[in-house]
Recover the amino acids of this structure.
């Protein structure tokens, strides 16, 4: 495996010499770090099935992140370095262990900073019998080149589309270029993966799920996001699965950035009404009552 000497794996293009052990803005250096690998029951039902069932999404949480969201619910791993150093060979074993444990898919959460390890581990695991769909769970902040590099590896893109305003993305995720970058990446994902394909039991096998988390005080930006998504669907002639989320909880430094409360029913109603108006209804709309910390699993190195 070759590590970059001037890393441009993500849109930050911070240029860290990863091969020489330098650590990038994302917190990643020359080792692979993973915080948890287990069946997860709280993704969209087409990925994780019935929460009471013995199955689930075989979810691998990677350490570090290319975004700096002030409200990140996974902040111990995304921004505080929790995780264990493992090899690409061990990662391939983890994929196979999740398959053996009944996973419906392999769900890679925030993996881009470790792309060279991930593709090597997927190659090894495929050769050893991995047959599950691969889900790439991303904040949406990806380069078109990285999306293309994952063609043939990723079956399902589970991508956020967080913001339409660069002022908002600069304030909340330290990424003023997020709206333009995420739009280009999502366009590529849609063209690469095509329309959603389900198996006989309703599990998604291929396609794109686009998540949007409604934030308190930012309803106008949510409406603009939905309008962008409707336009992208039109331009690419490719349907996707929209997933509107109301679970915002003021984690981490959220309150310092004006996000010190949950969203109101009125705010969420406005967002849902716009989704309905735009026909973005062939997916999921979370109940307002679902704002619970149990969506966040313990990052206790389980399965690593
Ligand atoms: S993946 Fe990390 S090291 Fe590479 S460009 Fe992005 S922030 Fe920098």
């Amino acid at each position: 495996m070759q590590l970059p000497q001037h890393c441009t794996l993500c849109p930050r293009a911070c240029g860290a010499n990863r091969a020489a052990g330098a650590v990038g803005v994302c917190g990643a250096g020359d080792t692979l770090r993973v915080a948890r690998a287990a069946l997860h029951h709280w993704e969209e039902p087409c990925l994780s099935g019935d929460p009471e069932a013995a199955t689930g999404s075989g979810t691998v949480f990677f350490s570090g992140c290319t975004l700096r969201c002030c409200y990140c619910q996974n902040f111990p791993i995304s921004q505080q370095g929790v995780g264990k150093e493992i090899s690409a060979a061990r990662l391939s074993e983890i994929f196979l262990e999740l398959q053996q444990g009944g996973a419906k898919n392999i769900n890679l959460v925030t993996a881009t900073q470790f792309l060279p390890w991930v593709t090597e581990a997927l190659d090894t695991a495929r050769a050893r019998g991995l047959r599950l769909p691969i889900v790439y769970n991303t904040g949406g902040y990806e380069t078109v080149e990285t999306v293309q590099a994952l063609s043939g590896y990723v079956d399902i893109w589970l991508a956020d589309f967080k913001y339409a305003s660069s002022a908002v993305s600069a304030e909340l995720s330290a990424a003023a270029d997020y709206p333009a970058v995420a739009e280009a990446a999502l366009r590529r994902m849609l063209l690469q993966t095509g329309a959603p394909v389900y198996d006989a039991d309703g599990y998604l096998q291929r396609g794109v799920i686009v998540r949007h988390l409604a934030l308190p005080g930012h309803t106008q930006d949510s409406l603009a996001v939905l309008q962008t998504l409707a336009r992208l669907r039109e331009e690419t002639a490719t349907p996707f699965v929209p997933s509107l989320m109301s679970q915002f909880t003021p984690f981490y430094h959220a309150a310092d950035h004006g996000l010190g409360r949950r969203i109101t029913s009125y705010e969420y109603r406005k967002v849902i009404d716009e989704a309905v108006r735009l026909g973005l209804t062939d997916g999921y709309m979370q109940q307002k009552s679902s704002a619970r910390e149990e969506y966040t699993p313990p990052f206790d190195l389980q399965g690593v």
